[in-house]
Specification:
4-stranded antiparallel sheet; 579 residues; Rossmann fold; alpha/beta; disordered N terminus; 64% helix
Length: 579
């Protein structure tokens, strides 16, 4: 753990140095508490030796009254301690919040295109409160332990110096064992906070992008990743719990072993002249003062102390580490490689929307050769989009079979296939950067050159420049339908899929932009099926499929002008509209 490198100790020293008056007040109240500790054991010893055992009941009661008054004064001192503690804790929290907010704003100004850091929420809320509570607990128990131990040791020395010979060795050994666990515990605490921050980021991203997750059919993968992060945090918590068990051993050595040694060596101590009252006073010091203070100290330092160091390191560090799952741009990454163009075979395809409905497609046979450019035309509602959805696997045929590259098409998401891409009329763009939207269908990424080439070929590059580059954030609500279509077209063009299906995917583009995009896909290696929005798309195709609701006719533009009255009518109407 690199706490020293983070500058946390220097920051802590500077923070405390500016609050010397508060520390002096805390020390004064703590001295009053140590007086209570001293009189607690010493008063019991004096009450027994000089009072009850000597036959002077009044003297014994007087010494017990002194111890009781010391307890009352200690209560008043505790109130003063908490008031002084507030003067330390609240400025710390306020300073940390300002530091985190300043850092987040600075990063936003320096890199406006960078996605917002969801972990800032965890730092501003959970981690600053952890730091505040941990710091308060640490100051409280460390101060209490130091002054309690001072009172106990002075009291033991005043009763009999031999008591220190019995108590000090196990106390020092137990404290040494405990201190040896702090460094590994701090490292484990860092792992736990990393896991907590990653989980917080993941949950924030899922909540914000739930629409994206559902639309992309990524529910299972997102759930699996979230479950993995939850398990990672649980594992880190279990490791911390095991180190907490090590604190129990140290507590036993430092707190319980002195009591046991005191009882074992009692005969020897009595032979050295130790009185019964001094022995009882020593037990009072150990069981009523030192042991509770040790227990509180070890719990606070073992948990709150290590947690405080790690949290302060994270809150005050100027560096921002990448979180799990953060996309990282890599220079020199190879361009996307596509497979061989896919052959599409449709045999006896029949589909109806419901058991009693008339089939939209009936006994359709069609073969699209590898690398071929096929355009599907026909009146509105005739089944063109249905055919595109069947080829993409979004719908399952009632009868017949569809094969892509020799394999039957399985419904999505049962088959997370990279063999085909469908871009529908309502193009989907998710919240994220332009780069993330374009690379969504590229499991192996793409080189910057391939990214730029794709954007230029489909006509997306002007929009990329207007948004601020490939790393600029995308707000889907701020884009026009045509701009969303351009981004979706770029995503499909860049993908390695050997089959692309465009279902009126250019309907919101002007004719020139549509022509440019379709020519880019026609030049792209792979098989292309286009459900046409304008009949001009047919002029760019190798073949055209005409759906008329009775039977399908497929051929070239010239062939269909002779064979299909419907196609002649569509071409004639389109020319009339242009005139």
């Amino acid at each position: 753990m690199s706490v020293e490198r983070s500058g946390v100790p220097a920051l802590a020293r500077g923070f405390l140095a500016r609050r010397k008056r508060v520390l002096v007040r805390l020390g004064a109240w703590s001295l009053l508490e140590s007086a209570q500790t001293f009189l607690g054991g010493y008063g019991v010893a004096m009450a027994l030796d000089h009072g009850f055992l000597a036959g002077h009941t009044g003297t014994g009661l007087a010494w017990l009254a002194v111890a009781a008054v010391a307890v009352i004064c200690g209560g008043a001192a505790t109130g003063g301690v908490f008031r002084g503690l507030a003067d330390l804790v609240e400025p710390l929290r306020d300073g940390l919040i300002r530091r985190v907010a300043d850092r987040a704003l600075t990063e936003a100004i320096e890199a406006p295109s960078r996605a917002a850091d969801g972990a800032v929420v965890s730092r501003l809320t959970n981690q600053t409160e952890l730091a505040r509570d941990s710091f308060a607990g640490l100051v409280l128990v460390a101060r209490s332990f130091v002054f309690t131990m001072v009172g106990v040791l002075i009291g033991l020395g005043a009763l009999a110096p031999e008591l220190l010979i019995v108590v000090l060795p196990p106390l020092v050994l137990g404290l040494a064992l405990f201190l040896a666990t702090l460094a590994p515990m701090a490292a484990r605490q860092r792992v736990f906070l990393d896991a907590d921050e990653a989980l917080s980021t993941q949950l924030g991203a899922v909540a914000e992008g739930l629409r994206d997750v559902l639309a992309a059919g990524a529910g299972q993968s997102v759930a699996a990743r979230t479950h993995a992060l939850i398990e990672a945090e649980a594992r880190a918590a279990r490791v911390l719990a095991r180190w907490a068990a090590a604190r129990t051993v140290a507590l036993g050595v430092a707190g319980q072993l002195p009591v046991l040694l005191l009882l074992v060596t009692a005969p020897w101590l009595l032979r050295q002249g130790l009185t019964a009252g001094a022995l009882l006073g020593a037990l009072t010091y150990l069981t009523q003062a030192l042991l509770p203070a040790l227990h509180t100290l070890m719990n606070a330092l073992g948990a709150a102390g290590t947690r405080l160091l790690v949290v302060l390191d994270r809150l005050t560090s100027g560096s921002r580490s990448a979180l799990p799952g953060t996309p990282v741009a890599e220079k020199g990454r190879p361009s996307t490689e596509r497979g061989a163009p896919a052959r599409v075979e449709i045999r006896g395809l029949t589909f109806a929307y419901g058991p009693n409905a008339q089939p939209v497609l009936r006994d359709l046979d069609l073969t699209v050769e590898p690398g071929e450019h096929l355009v599907v035309v026909g009146p509105s509602g005739i089944g063109k989009s249905t055919l595109a959805a069947l080829i993409a696997g979004l719908l399952a045929p009632d009868r017949g079979e569809i094969r892509v590259a020799g394999r039957p098409v399985a419904p999505i998401p049962a088959e997370p296939s990279r063999r085909r891409v469908l871009i529908p009329q309502q193009a989907y763009v998710f919240t994220g950067s332009v780069r993330e939207n374009l690379l969504y269908l590229c499991p192996d990424g793409a080189s910057p050159a391939a990214l730029t080439a794709t954007a230029a070929e489909v006509g997306l590059l002007p929009l990329v420049h207007r948004l601020g580059g490939f790393d600029a954030p995308v707000d889907p609500a701020a884009l026009s339908q045509g701009e969303r279509q351009l981004i979706a077209l770029g995503r499909a063009h860049l993908s390695p899929a050997p089959l692309v299906v465009l279902d009126e995917a250019t309907c919101h583009l002007d004719p020139a932009a549509e022509d440019r995009a379709e020519r880019a896909f026609a030049a792209r290696p792979g098989t292309l099926i286009v459900v046409a929005h304008r009949i001009s798309s047919a002029h760019r195709a190798d073949r055209i499929l005409v759906l008329d609701g009775v039977h399908a006719v497929c051929g070239t533009h010239r062939e269909l002008l002779d064979r299909s009255p419907l196609y002649r009518d569509l071409v004639g109407r389109w020319h009339a509209e242009r005139i």
